[in-house]
Every structure is written in structure tokens, then in C-alpha cells.
Amino acid sequence: WMYLESIFSSPDIVKQLPDAAKKFQAVDKSWKSIMKMTNDDPNALAAGTYKDRKETFVSHNVALDKIQKNLEEYLETKRAAFPRFYFLSNDELLEILSQAKDPQAVQPHLRKCFDNIVTLDFGVGAEDGNIIAMNSQEGEKVELGTNLRARGSVETWLTNVENRMKFSLHEKMKAGLLDYDEKIRKEWILVHPGQVVATVAQMTWARDTERALSADDPKSAMRDWSVLYKSDLNDLIIKIRGDLTKLQRKTIVALVTTDVHARDIIDELIDQGVEDTGDFTWQVQLRYYWK
Length: 291
Description:
This protein is mainly α. Helix content is 64%, strand content 5%. The chain is built from 13 helices and 3 strands, in the order H-H-H-H-H-H-H-E-E-E-H-H-H-H-H-H.
């Protein structure tokens, strides 16, 4: 009763589970009436031998079990509609659902639902429900475009957030890839989100390595590619020592880590005399492609 009482005190839950709420209210009314009688006459023997009281408690327990089952089935429908809710406990999910009219109620739980989305930015006057951007733990902001609103059921608008997140990152990834060959690499990394930088860098590395392997003189092309790649890597190391924001520094440090691994793979390909993209030494490498 204590667990369910806090849940069914929420008008939103009562509205969403009217039958279970009605059953609970009946049990709640009976329980409070019995407690009042006991308080008025605080005699254990009298309270424990009251006619049909045991049977009443047994029937209440049966009703509470059914209510609990209905509640769990309700939560399961919400999780089926938005599978990321499986990352939340029942209590956390109920906290969100009990404040369904307040989109801000999801903020404390976003990190569990999405990998490294810490908060969502709502438009001026949060009551309008406009969602304009997502923020990472590192403080990076990625815009989500227009016409994204926290309207309707929580699972519906969070699904829309998830879809817009994927669409926005796809668009930024495409822009980052097109922009890669237009800018100096050490400058390019400063104008795109960290995830775009990390992913596009992997795609262009695979692309340019295969371009060298497919050249008329693969050995010479691979040596030239190795020199260029190491030069870009040295530029990043120098860049780290410069005046950067905390976020820019984290992006570059992460990129240097993958670049060092990529450099070692290029050296391995050269050392083993690989001259074809179909060679097993190249095929076993993790490669990213834009399709």
C-alpha cells in the first residue's frame, strides 16, 4: 500500500490507469478507515479480533497484487513503445510518467536512456515544448533543427527526439565529410562536433588508404600516404599544445589516439608489402564507409 499510495497520488497516473486507480482508491479508503478506528481505540486485542478484519485484509492484498500487476503491464507497454525505457527502473519510469505534462521531468534520466545526452535544450518559455538542441557531458551542443516538440505522450515525443538525433547527426556527418577535403585538417576538426570528427576521420582514412592501394604504383603511393598522414598527426600534437577550449582539446586528444592506431596500420601494410585492397591484412581492419 505504501508503495502504490505514492504512485496513485499523481493525477497523471490516475488518468492513465483509471481502473487500477479506482481499485486502489477503494482499498485506500478502507485501510484509512481501519487505521482511524484503531487510532480511536488503540487496543491491540480489539483491533486484531474485529469481525471479518482478517478477511478484509486478505481481499485487500489480492486487490493490491492485481493493481501491481496492472501497473507492471502498463509500464511494459510504455517500454515496448520506447525501448530505451528498459534502461530505467520502474520507479524512475513512474517518476517520468507521473509528471507527463512536464517535459523537464525527463532531464534527470536522459543519461540512462541515451549514451551521453545529459540534457535537452527547450525553447524560451519551456512550456511551449520546443526542443532545440541536445547537450553532452563534455558540454558540446548539437542543434536538433525546428518543429521538434514535446507534445503528446512521453514515449511518443522521446521517439521523435531519437529520430531527430539520428537525422541531425547524419546531416552533420555528411557536411563534415564534404567539408573534409575543403579545409586543412587541423582547422577542420575545430568546426564540427566531436562524433562527426571521430567518424569522418575514420572514413577518410579508409578511403585514402584504399586510394593509395589502388594506385598504379601502390608501394610508392603508400609511402607518400604514410608521410602525409604522419605530418597531419604531428600537426594535431602541436595543436594540442596551443590555446584550445576544454571541448576542443578533448576532441583532438581522442582523434590523436585513433590516428596513432591508423598510422601503425599504414606502416604494417607497407612493411608487409600490401598492394591490393583485397589483401587479408587490409580486409581484417575495421573500416568506415559513407554509403
